[in-house]
Amino acid sequence: MSPGIDLKNKRFITGFHGIGFVGYVAVKHLIKSLDATKIGYLLTDSLPPVVTGHRGVIRLPFELYNHGDLVILLSESLPPTREMQKFVKGVTEWVANSGMRDAVLIGGLDHAYSAGNIDDEARFIYTTSFNPEGFEGMKPLEDGLFVVGPLALFMTLFQARGFPAAAILPYALRDRADPRAAAHAIKFVNSYYGLNVEVQELIADAETLEMEINKRASIDERGYDESLGYIK
Question: Tens digits of per-residue pLDDT, 133-174?
């Protein structure tokens, strides 16, 4: 991590490639929209064998960004399953021992469990030391529903340490990336942190994806595409 950065009282945010890729899409959009500064990266014993690039510069699997009071962890891929618990344990210990104030994790819930309009619904779950007063307009996770994967481990270990943490969980489509759900999560992040991150770009992405899916479904059903004059 970059030297000279005081993490005391900063606020940690992360998300992963779960249902609808909500956490990953939301975190990546936050970093871009806030023009957050890269301050470091995480190395593990079993790094995912993948890197990407941004304008030709390498982007590592787990990178840390800073904007104001926020410290954001971007995970370009999931930690390997065999190292998941070790990874989460290391991050939660680092967050707590650095003197950070709280943590917010972004994930998704399978829309199949939503009783209403998924665009208007999100749930949250929090540790006993977290103050949920800033989460007005969002309902707690229903009894009997489960959080799985890295977010479940983060919440478990934060709870065990007595650290304030919460997970924002909008309902999302599970069969593809759901930027509309990510936009819904960011609206709650805006409210909780007093930010003003625009979500129109994500909503536009969602509409584009929906149009493409509908177009493909129409082709499969009718056997042709009227816009192209193409018949199978």
Answer: 877 777 888 888 788 889 999 999 999 999 999 999 999 988
Domain that holds residue 24: 11-197
| Residue 142 domain flag | yes
Measured over the CA atoms of residue 25, residue 26, residue 31 and residue 34, the dihedral's sign is positive
Q: How would you classify the pairing of strands 57-59 and 11-15? A: unpaired
End-to-end CA distance of the chain: 55
Q: Domain containing 149 — which CATH number?
A: 3.40.50.10900
- Would you state the structure tokens that stand for residue 19, as one six-digit string? 């249902």
**CA quadruple 110, 114, 116, 117: dihedral, nearest 10:** -10
For helices 200-222 and 22-34, angle between their N-to-C axes, nearest 10 degrees: 140
Number of domains in the chain: 1
0.90 surpassed by pTM: no
2 within some domain: no
Phi first, then psi: give them for residue 90, nearest 5 degrees: -65, -40
The 10s digit of each residue's pLDDT in 102-136 is 999 999 998 887 776 655 578 999 999 998 887 77
Pairing of strands 62-67, 109-110: unpaired
